[in-house]
């Protein structure tokens, strides 16, 4: 079997990161109808805050019988303007870059029929969703070019900011890098009863990094730690976004393959975090920093009423790799008008269920080669992923405590478990901070860090995966299987 890793291995060895072909394009992007702009000269990323950040389009169902919404989505190549005046080839859901927003409700089923018009197989995974194995979009459960696949999401879980993305093994990292990710906002009655900012004042923002060649085309290089130094917010490079002098709710998603963000306002102003991966926290908290590893989400309220009209506030990123000039600015909020504001953030947002007694404890170790070898390997408990091997067997209905460690000295990771939202109990032996006190499905692990988490497996039986969600690492094999029976 020829895998993406074996295809990429020679290129990775050639440069330590490696370009795949001239210009960095791979066969994932064909010569079909999506035509890139022929550049007259080298394309450069525009200066910060010269393009407007768009709001993400919302998918509309094609039908809505009692208790169900049905969608039809085409997975296709397209050419879209990321850098002004340049059409860049991307992979899309229904032609949108970044992907659109699907709004769902707890207790109301969503059915999505995806049609694959690419030249590669794909799998669609609802990240954070509680779904049966056949609807999970697992790494080997792909559907071929020219075929369709229907996924059913029962939405029998609390409201949360989820997302969906490609998960075809050895291809997932490149597919997501080229655009196959989208936002899935699941709301419930508890959330809808709260007087939080809503409508035009609730804004999903997909954050990520990118690398472009001189023609303005995306360059994919596996494990490209240092090359992806253009920051995109809703698909545009370091844009501005006009706001009114009132409260906004921002649904933040880190859809990067590898990049960690540590976000702050340039004036040191306060933000109110109200939610994380698995939905609302029990109580909001005020902070000046929001940290997001790849795939993590944060639900944040910013009150712009404290600024006079005409104020410009930059959302900054204080983490590398890359210099502050390259990656230190994410987007700018321009306060351009006043507006009435009936919204508020209550002192109590929801009540999380009590933790069930745990009957099993497990340890998981994430690691990869960091000795400079030409073909570094990535491991989960010392093994690369084998889809035939069951690494953990779990009794249905039980709760467990997993202790997860990043054994590397230099390389960061994170940990994502399919099917379940878990609760963090400890980080490095200490109680977790408020941002990690709610329901989570992804947790960051800097070198040498250990987290302890509590998970309950009382929904579906079957086989699922857990993996590092630095997708380049999982594509290299940092993934394992668990079976609930």
In short:
This protein is mainly beta. Helices cover 6% and strands 39% of the residues. The strands form 6 sheets. It has a 7-stranded mixed β-sheet with strand order 11-10-9-13-18-15-16, with no helix packed on it. It has a 6-stranded mixed β-sheet with strand order 22-21-24-29-26-27, with no helix packed on it. It has a 5-stranded mixed β-sheet with strand order 12-20-19-14-17.
**What is the general shape?**
globular
- Largest beta-sheet details: 7 strands, mixed
Which ranges are low-confidence, i.e. pLDDT below 50, for 5 or more consecutive residues?
1-32
Distance between the termini: 30 Å
Q: Percentage of helical residues?
A: under 10%
Which structural class matches the secondary elements? mainly beta
Q: Give the integer mean of the pLDDT values.
A: 92
Count of extended strands: 31
Strand % is: 35-45%
* Alpha-carbon Rg, integer: 21 Å
Number of helices: 5
**Order of the strands making up the biggest sheet:** 11-10-9-13-18-15-16
Oligomer description: single chain
